[in-house]
Amino acid sequence: MRKTKHFMYFLAFLSAGMVMTSCNDDNDGPQQQDDFDAKIEALALAPKWNNYLLAASEELAEDCATLYNEWVNGYATTVKNAGGEFGNSYTTAVEQTIVQGSIDIAGEVGEQKIGGPNSLAKEGKTTQAVLEVESWYSFNSLDDYRNNIVSIRNSYFGGINATSAQTNSLSAFVASKNATLNTRVVDAISNAIGKIDAMDKPFRNNLIGSKVDAAMDACADLADIFERELKSFVQTNTDEVAYKAILENYADNIVVPTYANMKNKAEALRDAAQTFAASPTQNKLNIAADAWRATRIPWEQSESFLYGPADLLGLDPSLDSWPLDQADIYTILSDNKQSVAEIRSEITDEAVRGFHTIELLLFKGGNPRVVK
Q1: pLDDT at 38
Q2: Which of 204, 207, 300, 340 has a beta carbon 3.0–4.6 Å from 133's, enabling a disulfide?
Q3: What are the structural domains of the chain?
């Protein structure tokens, strides 16, 4: 199941009265002229702000550890044995994990992450369009989208950062039965990555144009070949022995290592936030910002396998809800609760925690905030 974007918060944010004149008239996101948003910025990098950064980073690290532990301590075995929801069918498990997960994220990148802001911009709804762009505080959007497609490539090729079929991969199996189909799938993955790479940065300033259209089309083509051809191939070529080996490689050499990397990176981000909050300097904030970007990579490369614990335990929205509830964020920043423990008691709602809350606290206009 794909994540649910929190459009109720998005609409509430718009109702606060934000305005802007174009996508290119400032370097910080929308011209935040309303009193509400100005109040948030007035609190930037105050002690409470810095403790909020630490509190949210602690929560993020714990969520990442939970996700990793859930896979290592049970769910990886469920996938490898085609148990649980997979009904003891390795064919079903391959279809519902590698194939369907790839369909879901390719569609989300093209239709929602790129297509949502693009459609609004074409309608002249520029403010809404920019606010719907995920990761625009850091200008990390196109890196996120690219890594989403890399998630598909990793799963299909059977290895992290693999650029060709690995032993016991779905790609190798498809190639052994239908080399032409495998080539077309590989080309579709490469084309989607290439078209995203060709888009102009930052995306929030370049929401329309032929490059954006080409990227959306490439993502649609990728989702389509998985949906219309690869899914049918898997259902027709029911080789349970081969599929079991593919699932074992997928769980052990892609999913679990990706989550292990994310857990380690999130812990480094938490430690950097703790160091900064204890004694704020520009260098320490820059290190925390770099740690955020580093943690973002394995998260985005996990988005083709957001089923299982990420879905059932609500870890996806807890980690990555967007847009944020800035009204509640302001309330948290401005109340009398100052300690990290007190702040953690306030950030139980998914729209005031996770990657993007940390991003807001760390970045402004695509760069780390300035410590004065």
Answers
A1: 80
A2: 204
A3: 32-368 (1.20.1420)
Q: Which amino acid is located at 244 in the chain?
A: K
Scanning the structure block, which residue is given the tokens 């497609």?
149
Residue 5: per-residue pLDDT: 41
pLDDT of 47: 96
Q: Supply the angle between the helices 7-15 and 326-334 in degrees, to the nearest 10.
A: 70
Q: Chain centroid to CA 278: how far? A: 29
β-sheet bridge partners, residue 368:
363
Q: Does the predicted TM-score (pTM) go above 0.85?
A: yes
* Model pLDDT, residue 117: 98
Query: Which one, of 146, 136, 140, 115, lies nearest residue 23 by Cα?
Result: 136
CB 321 within 8 A of CB 351: yes
Closest CA to 344 of 334, 336, 332: 332
Work out the widest C-alpha separation in the chain, in whole angstroms: 65
**In this predicted structure, what is the pLDDT of residue 36?**
58
Residue 6: what are its φ and ψ, rounded to 5°? -95, 75
Residue 37 pLDDT: 73
DSSP codes, 309-325: HHHHTSHHHHHH--S--
For residue 323, the number of C-alpha atoms closer than 13 Å in the C-beta half-sphere is: 22
Q: Where are the alpha helices (DSSP H) in 71-140?
A: 76-80, 90-94, 100-107, 115-122, 126-131
195-199: which pairs have CB atoms within 8 A and are 24 or more residues apart? 195/219, 196/109, 196/142, 196/145, 196/146, 196/149, 197/142, 197/146, 199/142
Q: What contacts 26, CB < 8 A, 6 or more positions away?
A: 20, 365
Question: Which is nearest to 299 in space by CA: 263, 248, 251?
Answer: 263
**Average pLDDT along the chain, 372 residues, taken 10 residues at a time:** 38 36 39 60 95 98 98 98 97 98 98 98 94 95 98 98 97 98 98 98 98 98 98 97 98 98 98 98 98 98 97 96 91 94 96 97 97 93
Neighbour-count burial for 334-359, b at 16+ CB within 10 Å, e otherwise: eeeeeebeebbebbeebbbbbbbbbb
